[in-house]
Design brief:
Chain A has 424 residues and is an alpha/beta fold. Chain A is built from eight helices and 28 strands. Chain A folds into three domains: 1-123 and 258-330, FAD/NAD(P)-binding domain (3-Layer(bba) Sandwich); 126-257, FAD/NAD(P)-binding domain (3-Layer(bba) Sandwich); 334-424, Sandwich (Immunoglobulin-like). Classes of the chains: A alpha/beta (424), B alpha+beta (127).
Chain lengths: 424, 127
Amino acid sequence: MNILYYDCAVIGAGAAGLCAGARTAEKGLKTIIIDRESHPGGVLLQCIHNGFGLHYFKEQLTGPEYAGRVTANALASGAVLMMDSTVTEIRENGKEKLLTVYSGKDGVTLIHTKSVILAMGCRERCRGNLGIPGDRVAGIYTAGAAQKLLNMQGVLPGRTAVIAGSGDIGLIMARRLSWCGVDVKLVTEIMPYPAGLSRNIAQCLEDFNIPLRLSTSLTGIYGKDRVEYVTVAPIIDGKADHSKEEKIFCDTVLFSVGLIPENELSRSCGIKLHPVTNGPVTDSNSMTGIPGIFACGNVLHVHDLVDFVSREAETAADNCVQYIAGMDKEETENNIFPVSPEGDLRYCLPCSCKKGKDVCFYMRSSAVRRKARLTVSCSNTLLAEKILNYVKPAEMISLTLEGEKLCSFVPGSKISVTLSPVEE
Amino acid sequence: MENSENTVIRKMICIMCPASCHLEITEKGKEGEYLVTGNRCPGGKNYALNEMRDPKRIVTAVVASDSTKIPCIPVKTDLPLQMDLIRGLLQKLFSMKIHVPVQCGDVLIKNYKDTGVSVVITRSVEE
């Protein structure tokens, strides 16, 4: 068995892991980034479309270009990349952590590390998660699986497709399939509003005259050996109305129905997970409930933009560097302010913040609003405010609060982050 | 500048960045002159005017390669291409084969059909 010693072990070499690892290595931590795939970049490698990096690199890049840049940065920083390797366990061992890593090439490796950054990303929900009835036939994919087949292997998943769910990957795949000659007949969405970014509705559906049916459920998938048709029905009073069911003939079904942070490892080492985001509960130091274990990117909460993932990863890395330097040692529990999402907010991260430390809150709305007011307050005092246009659940909201604004408050006081509609 | 009496002739969502601004276009005086509102940056105005006159899109695709490890190499147009030329370009890309090694940024097709638009490789592949 190989034994390695590091200051920081990053799990996952996607955008979050590469950006976090590059930063910790730059700041002098001996860093290893571990990933089960053969090539670094994560899901970016299969996202061949453009639109990435406008905030982070100040230009429009494709997924592989973004992956190429963050990989180059990680390598230049001196971080070690350990590919084709799966972390199977994280254990606490006094102040350090022990990682068990398995790879076909090296067998089992034990990594002793002072800190861990979780950057495992997320998984797609699939037909099984939704419990869609019908036949078990070929031709049913998650949108990301179809994207990988088409963009990485060059395999066309079918000839006529129906896409269930209006998540961004599904929308991007609608365009991609149309450009490859596939007839995309319909995109269905159970909610009354689309799940993906508005720009993707415009450039991926409207450009190709692909109909999007809102408040519509895919009620069944049928065929012998291969998908032959699906049934769809409108949702009335929260339930699919089967009397209005309609058959749509197709040989392929793609699911784009949401993503779930991949936290098997986190759960097995006892990290507390957030009931709404399904990612770890973190404080304003990006730290999970276990000291020395940090989280960033889609493993923490699902993002719509990789730029925010990179930014969040760098923040986590900075916090990790500070943790190791022991700068926060004298800090005690009583400097902590719990954060509570209120009004229209579905969630708000981090779950707590500290006096004197700037914090960037990331949150999502549970409602569609033409105009809304976002406020941060403590003991009925307004600390920050922002007016937002076109608020929707699909688009993440962020707001930075200067740490010094908390200086006059008693630690332990609740910080309310509230989103409320503005009447026009 | 603002003239509320003019009727909005088209609404569109800007695709230039994820902000997805909701744009409204009104006709200004004579035909072919437009007023754009709802954009939060100059890019939105340019996008709307291009959409009204000559819509273009960045095209991305994968091209087969002779690499032993990466069977498909991603490519993109370096500039937006007229929408009616996209099908033809894709047909051409589907029939090509890239010989590795290639670097991200290498030009695969230069100045496609004299449009000034080139196709470039977006992933470095060594072998």
